[in-house]
Amino acid sequence: MLSDHYNIEFNKKVTVSGSMYREGDFLLCHDDASDDRAIAFILYLTEEPWLKTWGGSLDLFQTIDSEVTHRKKSIYPRFNSLVCFKVDPNVTYHQVSEITSNVERLSINGWFHSDMFKHEPKLIAEPKVSLAKHMKFYSIGAHSYLTEFINHNFFDQKLMSNVQQEFIN
Ligand SMILES: O=C(O)CCC(=O)C(=O)O
Ligand SMILES: [Fe+2]
């Protein structure tokens, strides 16, 4: 059925995992493209009704020339509902927004695979600006702004360079 709908011939491989997102959990924007993943699926096993104020939406993004332009759609989990989409590299970008309440977002999710798909591994580009360079743009204005919500201990120059070094490593 799914095969007819998408006009894709699946191979025998299906990847399945169970996911549980709890308060503070989220999944950053990505496109799922890897190896022979063809169709992504998510079966939601959340309590009903799921309130929008709890976060946890599956957000789908619009892209133009592989660049994300805006959020196209937000799908909130519904018990026993199945969401599927074709894995399209640099196109089917999506994320799970942060869970903002003390609830569990349970799902069974994975991919149907196909020999018709062979996604190239992505090269992660080196950051164009080194972290050390950012330090030069750290202005007095930025400092007074940041002190509103960052622990003052983190403004210690020595600690700052240690943290930066950790990230570089
Ligand atoms: O749980 C969802 O709604 C999406 C999960 C997802 O995108 C993934 O696991 O790759
Ligand atoms: Fe995904």
Automatic annotation (TrEMBL):
<protein>
    <submittedName>
        <fullName>Prolyl 3-hydroxylase OGFOD1</fullName>
    </submittedName>
</protein>
<dbReference type="Pfam" id="PF13661">
    <property type="entry name" value="2OG-FeII_Oxy_4"/>
</dbReference>
<dbReference type="GO" id="GO:0031543">
    <property type="term" value="F:peptidyl-proline dioxygenase activity"/>
</dbReference>
<feature type="domain" description="Fe2OG dioxygenase">
    <location>
        <begin position="12"/>
        <end position="114"/>
    </location>
</feature>
<dbReference type="InterPro" id="IPR005123">
    <property type="entry name" value="Oxoglu/Fe-dep_dioxygenase_dom"/>
</dbReference>
<dbReference type="GO" id="GO:0006449">
    <property type="term" value="P:regulation of translational termination"/>
</dbReference>
<dbReference type="InterPro" id="IPR039558">
    <property type="entry name" value="TPA1/OFD1_N"/>
</dbReference>
<dbReference type="GO" id="GO:0005737">
    <property type="term" value="C:cytoplasm"/>
</dbReference>
<dbReference type="InterPro" id="IPR051842">
    <property type="entry name" value="uS12_prolyl_hydroxylase"/>
</dbReference>
